[in-house]
Amino acid sequence: MIALLILLGLAAIVILWYFATYNKFIRLRQQVENAWAQIDVQLKRRHDLIPNLVETVKGYAAHERETLTAVTEARAKATSAKTPEESIEAEGELTRALRQLLLVVENYPNLKADQHFLELMEELRNTENLIAFARQAYNDNVMIFNTAIKRIPDAIVASQMKLKEYPFWKIEEEEDREAPQVKF
Amino acid sequence: MKTTFWEIQRKKKRAITLLFIIFFPFFTLSLFGLLEILRLTSFGFLIRGASPLELLLLSALASILVYIIGIAGARRERILRYLEILKAQKPDKDDLKHKQVENVVNEMSVAATVSPPEVYIIPVLAKNAFSAFNIIAITEGAVSSLERDELQGVIAHEMAHYLNGDSYYKGILSTFVMTLSFFSSASFYLAAGSSSRSKKKGIGGGFWLVFIYLMFVEFLSRLINSLISREIEERADAMAVQFTRNPLSFASALWKVSRDRTRGISAFNNPAMASLFIVNPTIKGIDEISGFLGNIFSTHPPVKKRIKTMLELAGVGEKELIEKVKVSSPKREWWVEKDETWLGPFSMEELLEKTWIGEGVKIKGKTGIVTLKELLSRFKPTEGNCPRCNGPLFYTYYENVPILRCGRCGGIIVREDRVLRIIAREEDNLSAEEIKYTKKIVEEKKEKLFSYGTTPRAVDPTEPLRCPFCGKPMQRRFFNFITYTPVDYCPKCRLYFFDSGEIEMITAGLKRVNILYT
Q1: Architecture of domain A2-177
Q2: What ipTM score was computed for the predicted complex, to two decimals?
Q3: Is residue B475 in some structural domain?
């Protein structure tokens, strides 16, 4: 009788553990997918912002045509990209073009005194940060997920659910991130 | 191996869970002890028939009840009411700096993969921030003095509290502590009352025993409470680094915020709220003591220790921190010709204040010489005229706050709710002579005030101004009683008019009270 009770108790614990772990994995997977979706949202936001920025800069620095065309072209390429590989490449190009534009703008104090331009710059900075943070969040969540599904005994549930590791988002350029010259 | 922020988070999480688990039986046992001691007093008859086991069960039930009260008491509405008292508002869309705060909150919520919380800005000069539930509040002083990356750190710390649901932890803990503290003060009154009557009635000093016991238990519970509080803060710090990956900026933000002696103002002096803030709003010497006493009573870890942890994470020393917090001066890149010499450099805002700049004056920027007309073409003229001199009003910005400035006399019109922002953001870089001058003016005004009467009209006897928008006469009042600066205010449109230089004087007065009055 007592042995039976103990057995039942153990079974209950195992079932509870199974449910808890199952739910945990669902939550973690949801977080990874959310973070992935965020990257797309933020990239789209950047595309919408660029025409406005180019117009403003044109008003003050019309003879920087080369830099401005580079930005417009990179944007066109990025919006029309079909495969993920194309998209990643085009976005990288756009980032470089924008960075070049920001360097050029440094030479125009008139532009920097323009409140409208300052607002646009803040928007652009915000967007760039959002993209960077979205990638960082994606990578962090992937790391947490990948570690969680390999941990014993939770790995049993993970293999039952046929969970696979997610790939990390590789950041090709070192300067892609703004602030951290920091080692962890 | 070097410690990482992941590792700190893991450690803190373990400590918090452990302490929390200890706290519940501790509370139950202390209630049980209380009941046992009550047997010795005149209240003993209430529980005479109960066995120890029954008493223990009763204590456990009472603990659960307190726990539920704690959760029920931690409500969003209370925080909203508190914010209302502080006159906190949502960020102003027309204000670039406020826009930045909103953007930073969005960035941090993406970094933390949560939906963005509500943001409120508290219009006070003190530098502090707090979060509760899905609300983040930050003071105007903090917004003004922190750079973008530092703001990220502060917001990320608050975001971590929001993500962890720390306001629930803190609500439950403080309910436990408050219950014990209520019992101990009740027992004190009972003891004091009964001992004065004891001679007549002969009820012994049993309540004194209860009181001493409860004092001891309350002390222990406060100890555990502040231990948990500090672990919670340190975990939020580590999570802030996870979100921003920029420990150095967070260190400099902490440094800036904690150096401010006005971080506590009267409305913040609410002990139940204190533990929610990023740095303790009530300044006590005990907060910065890292020894035994500090460990027992402070709800926040010493800022020194928090900064040290951040520097370790960043892998840099104090030298880099000092380099980082050096205040960057605003960009000045304009020169003006006066009496055949070039004056400057000035920022655009300073240039607009110089009322002697006329049509013929040469202005030089980085790209060459421009005229006043070109310079002014950048600003939209508006409908109204200056109430003081009837000159044209331009829509412009002062420290990123939208204002109207008169092109002729340099007076400015500011919306009432935005005035404080200018004062908070304006750097007080007055020279010794300027301070002396301000001091002299203040003295003169005070003298006038005491000899001719106490109305603002006595200080500034000119005709009352008319509001350029509604046409009604404006009120003349003192902006405050530090510099006795008479300003004009339209109660209908809620606008202030400042003569040229007045707001600077008010700022100097507010930020340098100690210098003006010594």
Answers
A1: Up-down Bundle (1.20)
A2: 0.83
A3: yes
